[in-house]
Specification:
Blueprint lengths: L2 E7 L3 H12 L6 E7 L6 H6 L7 E4 L5 H11 L4 E4 L5 E2 L4 H8 L5 E9 L5 E4 L7 H6 L7 E4 H6 L11 H11 L5 E12 L10 H18 L6 H32 L1 H5 L4
Parallel strand pairs: 1-2, 1-4, 2-3, 6-9
Antiparallel strand pairs: 4-8, 5-9, 6-7, 6-8
């Protein structure tokens, strides 16, 4: 099987329904869909039980958070690649998976572009870079819902580090791409729509997320590749990070304006 789609859910029935529908509408068929529910009580379980036409495996039980649930989904998967598409997020078009996998690739990590959608229905597309550099990771990361990860790579790394509540994917990408030898490929298609308001973008959890990212940066940028010298690493952390964060804000503002002013940019490469 080429792809395992893993969807994590907790009391988000409406968002889960949107996610499942986007998978059901795909023209691509070489996938399994695994839903890991944290013991919802809002009708999510009933919804999943009614969608056994597309849901291959389903577990509903309390867990220790998003990344414990995602590791659980990984352990149930058999696909060559994993796509973590949490409840509320959805695939950008019915043919997107078909178009992605018709390209042909064998890299460890394959990623596309992302469309951010806020609660007020404001949407904008952000292009991910073709090269994953230390400078990029100082201020940003790969969006989970548009990234296909080889199952073997994630399994061999031990899965996501559960000590992190909201940023274990960031830690994984730094371990794999910067400190490791993982190969990667960028595909210039908007893969999915990310519903802002999840654990990594929820303002109530924002301080935890940023604190975890800071710990992860210090671990990777001062003690290991690509900055062998702790002095150099700390210099990068203190000065270059601020510059990169500013550039990230400018880059996102640019894509927001481009999305608003050029309708074809949002529709580019979509059905």
């Amino acid at each position: 099987m080429k792809l395992s789609i893993i969807t994590i859910n907790l009391n988000n029935r409406a968002g889960l329904d949107r996610t499942l529908n986007s998978v059901a509408n795909q023209t691509f068929g070489d996938y399994e869909l695994i839903v890991i529910d944290g013991g919802s009580g809002d009708g999510s379980v009933e919804l999943i039980n009614n969608r056994n036409d597309i849901v291959t495996k389903f577990i509903s039980e309390p867990d220790g958070g998003i990344f414990e649930a995602q590791n659980k989904g990984m352990s149930q998967s058999v696909g060559e690649y994993l796509l973590f598409l949490n409840s509320g997020d959805y695939l950008s078009s019915p043919s997107i998976l078909q178009r992605i996998f018709s390209i042909g690739f064998n890299e460890d990590i394959v990623y596309g572009d992302i469309i951010f959608r806020a609660a007020d229905k404001i949407s904008y597309r952000v292009n991910t870079p073709s090269r994953l550099t230390p400078s990029f990771f100082l201020a940003d990361s790969l969006p989970h819902p548009c990234t296909f990860i080889k199952r073997e790579l994630l399994e061999e790394s031990g899965g996501y580090d559960r000590q992190y509540k909201t940023a274990a994917d960031y830690d994984f990408f730094l371990r794999s791409v910067l400190a490791g030898n993982a190969t990667y490929k960028h595909i210039g298609l908007p893969v999915s729509v990310f519903a802002k308001g999840g654990a990594s973008s929820d303002e109530s959890k924002g301080s935890v997320h940023y604190s975890e990212r800071e710990l992860i940066r210090k671990k990777h940028f001062t003690d290991s590749f690509p900055f062998r010298s702790k002095f150099t690493g700390l210099y990068i952390m203190l000065f270059k990070k601020k510059i990169m964060l500013f550039k990230k804000k400018i880059r996102y503002a640019y894509y927001y304006m481009k999305s608003k002013l050029r309708k074809s940019f949002m529709e580019e490469n979509l059905d």
